[in-house]
Amino acid sequence: MIQIYIQELATYNSAVGVGKWINVEDFDSEIKALFEEATEVLKNEDLYYGVDAEEYEIVDWECEVDIDLKNIYQDIDKLQTINDLLNELDQDEIDKLGYLLDIGCDITDITIDTLENVWSNSDWDEAVEEFIEYGLDIPVDGKIYNYIDYDKIQRDLEIDGYTEYNNKIYREV
Question: How many angstroms separate the CA atoms of 112 and 48, rounded?
Answer without folding.
Answer: 48
